Amino acid sequence: MSAAEEVVTEAPAVEAVPKRAMTLGYGTSLAVLAALILIPLFVKNFIIFQMTMLLIYGLAVLALNILTGGSGQFSLGQSAFYAVGAYTSAILMEHAGMNYALTLPIAGLICFGFGFLFGQPALRLSGVYLALATFALATAMPQLLKLGYFEHWTGGVQGLVVTKPDAPFGLPMGQDMWLYYFTLAVSIAIYVASVNLLRSRSGRAFMAIRDNEIAASAMGVDVALYKTLAFGVSAGITGVAGGLGAIAVQFVAPDGYTITLAISLFLGMVVGGVGWLPGSIVGSAFIIFVPNIAESISKGLSGAVFGVLLFLVIFLVPHGARQVAIVAQQLIAKLKKN
Amino acid sequence: MTAMLNVKDLRAYYGQVQALHGLTFSLNEGSLTTLLGANGAGKTTTLRAICNMVRSTGAIEFEGKPIGARSTENVVRLGIAHVPQGRGTFTNMTVEENLQLGAISRSDKKAIVADIERMYEHFPVLKQRYTQQAGTLSGGEQQMLAVARALMLRPRLMLLDEPSFGLAPLIVRDLFRILGKINREEKVTILVVEQNAQLALELADQAYVIETGRIVMSGNAKDIANNEDVRKSYLGY
Amino acid sequence: MELFANQVLAGIATGAIYACMALAVVMIYQAIDHLNFAQGEMAMFSTFISWQLMQWGVPYWGAFVLTVAFSFAAGIVIERLLFKPLAKAPVLTNVAGFIALYAIINSVAGLIWDFTIKQYPTPFGSSPFLGSQLISTHQAGMIGITLLMLVLLFFFFRFTRVGLAMRAAASLPESARLVGINTSWMIALGWGMAAAIGSIAGMMIAPVVFLEPNMMLGVLIYGFAAAVLGGLSSPFGAVVGGFLVGIFENLVGTYIPGVGNELKLPIALALIVTVLVVKPAGLFGRAIVKRV
C-alpha cells in the first residue's frame, strides 16, 4: 500500500464538556438526594432492590464515564472489572468470612491494580483498537472464571452464593432497605470523590489528554501515567460496584458478567450523556428498566422494541440526558429573565 | 461588463458568533478581484459562505441565479471552484487522481484527458510527479496542484483562499503569474483572498477591503493601492 | 509437522469465512469511519432472505443475485432512514445506533424464521477438495469468491470514477464536496456495498455454520479482529487478516493445552491485541500522523 502517511487533524472522539456543566447545581442535587433518601420508605421490597441495582449500575456507568468522558479512552471491558470486584467480595465473604463492608475497598483496590496494569498495553491503542482489546478482556473473563484451577475459590460454572447482611446496631429496617441505604452512602461518597477528582489537577490532565493528546504532552502532562491512572480509577470504581452487586444479588456466576453487561454499561453512558457524571444514574435507569418495558410491550419482539426505543432516544437527544439538562437550564434562565 | 456574482447583505455565523455583518459586493465577469483584510476580518468566511459551507443569511446570485439554498457540492457544480485554505489536497492519492477528482462532476471523458495534459503544461512540475502521492509534494507544488485541481472543473469563477500562505516569495510570484494568465487566457473570473496585499494589488484589477465582517473600501486595485490608509495598514509604507 | 500443516490448512478454510466478513467490515469502515456492530446481523438477515427465496422455488444463483441486490438496496435505505439523521451526532451515539440496529434485526429474524438451526445449500458441493479431508470444495469455492470480490473491489476503487469519489469522500469530506461530490450519498453507497458484500459472506458462511439468527455472532467478532489485524484501511489486509486469524485460532486450539472451544476466542483476540501493541495500525494499515 502507499508509503505516504496520512495527516489528519483528528477531532476528539468525545466533545468537551465545560467544567461547570459536569455537575448539577446545588438545588437540583439536594432534590435528587432527597428523592433517593425518601422514596424507599414508601415502596415495596422489590422496588427497593431495583433502586439498589440502579445505584450500582449507576456507579459502573459513572466509572466508564470517567474513563471515556474524562480521559477519552473507550472500553468495552468494564464487565471484566465488574466481575473481578464481584468475585473478590464474594470470595472474601464466603471463604474468609470477612465483613461485607470491608470487602468493598479491597475489591476496589484489586480492580484499581488490575485496571492500571491493563492500561499499560492499552496505552499504545486508541479508538477501535482499544475497543477490540477491551472487548477481548470482556469475552475472556467469564471463561477464566470457569477454569478448573480456580474452581475451589470461584465455584466454577456454579458460582457462589453470597449471604445478604442484616442491618447493624439493631436498626429497625429490613435487609433490602439497609443494603439500599448502605449502597446510597457508598454511591454518594464515590460520586463526590469523582466530581472532585475531575476538578482537580489530575482531572484537568485527563481532559487535556481527551481533547488533544499531543498538545497535552507538549504542556508537560505525563500522558502515559494519567491514561493508565484513568483506567485504574475507572476499574476501581467498577470493582466496588461489582462487589455491591454481588451482595445485592446474593450470587456470583461467570455468565452474569458477559460482554452484554459491558455493552449495557456503554449504552447507559451514551443515554446519560458522555462526560456528564449526573447522567450516569439516568443511563443506569435506561439499561435497567427499558429492557423490562420492551418485554412487557412484546415478548417475541422485545429486542426489536428495545432497539426502536433506543433509536428514539438517540434521535431525540443525541447527546443524551445531558442535552435535556442543558435545555432545561436554558428554559429556567429564560423564565427567570421574564 | 455585467456582474457575475452578486452578494447582498451577507451575514454568517459560527454557532452564536456572528462573523460577517452584512457584506455587499459584486464581481464582474472576467475580473480578477482581491479581498484584503487582517486576520479574523472575515475573508475566509466570505468564501465559505459563497459555497454554503457556513451558516449564513443574505442573497447570493451567480449569473443571475440565487445559489444561497444550494448545498456545497451543487454550488461547485455550477462552475464555482474553491481552493480552500490549507489547499485541501487528497494527500493519500496520486497527483493524477487529484486532477481527476477536480473533474469528477464532468462527464466529457476525452476533454478531461485533454485538460489534464493542459494542466501539465501550466504546471510542468506536476507532470514530473503525476504518479506520486500528493502528500509527498512540497507546499508550493501542492498549491499548484490545488489550483490545477480547481481548474479541472472548467470553472466560470474561481475562489482562492490565501494561495500564498506558507510559500517562498519566488514561488508566490510564479503562482500569481499563472493566476493572471488563467484569468486572461481562459476567461476565468477570480476572487482571491490575500494577506500579501502588495502582490495581490499588483495582480488584481478590483479590490475590496474588509474589516471585522464589513466592507470598508472598494474600487480599482490601483486606487486602493494608492490609498493612504491602505498603505499604512496593509502595505506598511 | 504434518499435524501442523494440516492445522494451517484447516485454519485457512475457517479463515476464508473471517476474510469474507472482514472485507465487508473494511468496506463500511472506509465509507463511514465506524465499525458497524450490526453488520453481521444484516448479513444474517440477507442469508435468510435467500433461504426463503429458495424455499419458494427460486434456483440458487437466482436467489443469490436477488439477495445481493436486495441487500444493496436495504443497506442504502437503512443509512438514509436511521443513520443520516445521526450524521452530526457524536461517534459514540452512532455506535449506540449500531447496537440498536443489531437488536432489531436479530429479534425480527427470530420472530419470522425462529431460532431453530436450518441447513443451507452450497453451490460448490461438499466433497473433499483435491483429495484433502480438511478442505472441502465448498471452502475452496468460498476462498475463490473472497479473492474474486477482493479483485473486483480493487478495480472498482482504483479505476472507476465512483470508486475514486468514494475514496475522496471518505478521506477528506470537505474537500470532496468542494470538487462537487455528494458525500452524503457516497456514505449511503458505502452502506449499500457493505451490505451486499456482507450478504455474499453470509451465503458463503451459512453452509458451514448453519443458518440461524445468531449464526454471525462469532463470525463478526473474528471478522472485526481480522479487519483490525490487517489494518482497517486496507481491503487486502482484511483478507490476509482473515486467513491469519483462522490459522491462529486453529493452532491455539491444537497446541496450547487446556484450551477448550471457549478459550479459543479470548486467546486469539489476545494474540491480535499483542500484534496491535507492536503495530498499532495493523499489519497492512497506513500509519496516520496526527497533526496538532
Most extensive protein-chain contact, per-chain counts: A-C, 58 and 55 residues
Q: Please, how many helices of chain A?
A: 14
Q: Write down the CATH topology of chain C.
A: ABC transporter involved in vitamin B12 uptake, BtuC
What is the H-and-E element order of chain C?
Answer: HHHHEEHHHHHHHE
Distance between the termini of chain C: 51 Å
List low-confidence stretches of chain C.
none
Query: How many discrete structural domains of chain A?
Result: 1
Rough shape of chain A?
globular
Supply the helix-strand structural class of chain A: mainly alpha
Helix amount of chain A: over 70%
Largest sheet of chain C: 2 strands, antiparallel
Q: So what's the oligomer here?
A: heterotrimer
Largest beta sheet: strand ordering of chain A: 2-3
Record field, number of beta strands of chain C = 3
Strand order of the largest sheet of chain C: 1-2
CATH architecture of chain C: Orthogonal Bundle
Measured distance between first and last alpha carbons of chain A: 63 Å
CATH top-level class of chain C: Mainly Alpha
Percent range for β-strand residues of chain C: under 5%
Strand content of chain A: under 5%
Characterization of the model:
The complex is a heterotrimer of chains A (338), B (237) and C (292). Mean pLDDT of chain A is 81; it is low at 1-13. Chain A has one domain (19-257). The radius of gyration of chain A is 20 Å and the shape is globular. A two-stranded antiparallel ribbon of chain A has the order 2-3. Chain A is built from 14 helices and 3 strands. Chain A has 338 residues and is an all-alpha fold. By secondary structure, chain B is α/β, with parallel strands linked by helices. Helix content of chain B is 39%, strand content 28%. In chain B, the strands form 2 sheets. Chain B has a 6-stranded mixed beta sheet, with helices on both faces. In chain B, a hairpin with a 2-residue loop joins strand 1 and strand 2 (17-28). In chain B, helix 3 (95-102) packs parallel to helix 6 (139-151). The longest helix of chain B is centred in the C-terminal third of the chain and has 17 residues, at 169-185. The radius of gyration of chain C is 19 Å and the shape is globular. Chain C has helices spanning 2-32, 39-55, 60-83, 91-113, 137-159, 161-171, 173-178, 183-209, 216-230, 235-255, 261-278; strands at residues 128-129, 132-136, 288-290. In chain C, a hairpin with a 2-residue loop joins strand 1 and strand 2. Chain C has a single domain (2-278), classed as ABC transporter involved in vitamin B12 uptake, BtuC. By secondary structure, chain C is mainly alpha-helical. Chains A and C meet through strand 1, helix 5, helix 9, helix 11 and helix 13 of A and helix 4, helix 9, helix 11 and strand 3 of C. Strand 1 of chain A pairs parallel with strand 3 of chain C, so a sheet runs across the interface.
